DNA sequence: CCCTGATTCGC
DNA sequence: GCGAATCAGG
């Protein structure tokens, strides 16, 4: 695959939108995220500020061949530490429109989304996906679970027909993508369930 | 271990 | 110019 006009355009667009290099690579196909990053740098848009007209500081540091003694590092310019406590949470609060053209419009915070007032029901698609996933689940036992295996239980714990999904989890979350979709149901249907 | 981007350098 | 290998950080 070569970098055609179109592909470069897609690259630029997605990069500007804040998509990760791997996502872009996946979208484009035929290239690795390394290729994408390399291209990004060659295009001179490593800084995701669209303008890129500002100071283009150049690190004069040279690196060793890296194999025998990969020790020296460029040591990128570091800003002075701020004495003031910094906000830990990265919230989607309004940013100054003047200097912040775009952050990450698409990627969620990584936290489970709060229940949506309007869309409480689990989408039929999600349920469908879950059924599919359960068929292809890795059927891990409790002790086989790791930090990033889906911990969604399947079957009856009281019977031998019990296992855990075990598919790769969505980053940060305890479940795979399919189960994340159904895991956080805002307790609507069981609301008026009678015991 | 999963991911992220950054850099180098042989091709 | 290209991108795998590598580095560095979360």
UniProtKB/TrEMBL annotation:
Amino acid composition bias (Low complexity), ranges on this chain: 87-96
A Pfam family per the record: GcrA
Domain of life: Bacteria
Region (Disordered): 44-96, 102-121
Protein name: GcrA cell cycle regulator
Native organism: Sinisalibacter lacisalsi
């Amino acid at each position: 695959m070569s970098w055609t006009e179109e592909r470069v355009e897609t690259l630029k667009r997605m990069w500007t939108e804040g998509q990760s290099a791997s996502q872009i690579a996946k979208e484009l196909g035929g290239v690795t995220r390394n290729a994408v990053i390399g291209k990004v740098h060659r295009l001179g848009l490593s800084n995701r500020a669209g303008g890129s007209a500002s100071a283009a500081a150049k690190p004069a540091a040279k690196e060793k061949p890296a194999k025998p003694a990969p020790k020296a590092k460029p040591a990128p310019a570091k800003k002075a530490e701020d004495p003031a406590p910094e906000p830990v949470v990265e919230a989607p609060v309004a940013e100054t429109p003047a200097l912040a053209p775009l952050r990450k419009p698409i990627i969620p915070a990584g936290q489970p989304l709060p229940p949506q007032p309007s869309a409480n029901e689990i989408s039929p698609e999600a349920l469908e996906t879950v059924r599919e996933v359960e068929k292809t689940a890795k059927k891990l036992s409790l002790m086989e679970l790791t930090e990033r295996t889906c911990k969604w239980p399947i079957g009856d714990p009281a019977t031998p027909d019990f296992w855990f999904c075990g598919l790769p989890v969505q980053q940060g979350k305890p479940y795979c993508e399919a189960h994340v979709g159904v895991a956080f149901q805002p307790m609507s249907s069981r609301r008026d369930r009678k015991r």
